[in-house]
Amino acid sequence: MADDFGEGSTAGMDDYETLMATTDVELLKTALRNEKAAPEILQFQVQLVKRAREQIQLMEETVEEFEQSGMDPLTVSLYQMDLDRAQFLLRSYLRIRLQKLEKYMFYIWKNDSLRNRLSEPEKIFVKRCIDDMEKHLEETVLSKLPDNYQSTRRQSIISEEDDMVPEPQLDTFVACKSSNRFVSLRLVDSERPLEMQRHDVSFVLYKVIKDKIGVDVDLV
User: Fold this and answer.
1) What is the SS3 string spanning 158-180?
2) How far apart are CA 36 and CA 22, in angstroms?
3) Residue 56 and residue 130 in contact, taking contact as beta carbons nearer than 8 Å
């Protein structure tokens, strides 16, 4: 009986943790942690960001309605705290991605896989930045070159031959946590896989788990 009760309690706790981990606030926290710890830009969380924005708008309307109706200031302040937290998480998530775009825009733009991870506004931003930089380079430098350097003028600032474009370092070590009950990771130069139980934390090369982020593991 005691064993059955213990097993039931453990299962119930696991279900509760799973429920809490799937709320939009917790999902946004996880997306922010993953994006912040990953050296490269990750897939943009379209639906999550859309829901977060809708919830923030609803919370703003609720706080305004409470203030106008003379609701208890303590209650209003609690709702305002939730609103501030949601806004902070969303802005931080978008800011981290913007920093990566500014740093690796040329590398991302010439890589189809990475470019497809961007939202439509992010694609527009990167394209506009690249066009502006190419125009500035043309007007300030390339147009001043002699005629025998015309071939140089025709080269794109993001040409495949350009070896000066900053790239994210995928060989860096990161801390990851298993988000499932059991995960087996195939490590580099190792015959034995790394086996992780749920919530286990390990330090591994980013490139080993890059395709499992948000599915089997999350970064911490």
Assistant:
1) CCCCCCCCCCCCCCCEEEEEECC
2) 19
3) no
pLDDT digits (tens, 9 = 90+) for 118-165: 999 999 999 999 998 888 877 776 666 666 655 554 454 445 455 678
C-beta separation of 213 from 175 below 8 A = no
The predicted model scores a pTM of 0.80
Shared domain for 145 and 198, answered yes or no, is no
Task: Take residue 4 and report the two structure tokens written for it.
Answer: 């059955």
Residues in CB range of 118: below 8 A, 6 or more apart: 41, 44, 101, 108, 126
* Number of independent structural domains in the chain: 2
Q: Please report, to the nearest 10 degrees, the dihedral formed by the alpha carbons of residues 32, 33, 34, 36 taken in order.
A: 80
DSSP percent split of the chain into helix, strand, coil, nearest 5: 60, 10, 30
8-state DSSP, 218:
E
Domain limits for position 198: 169-220
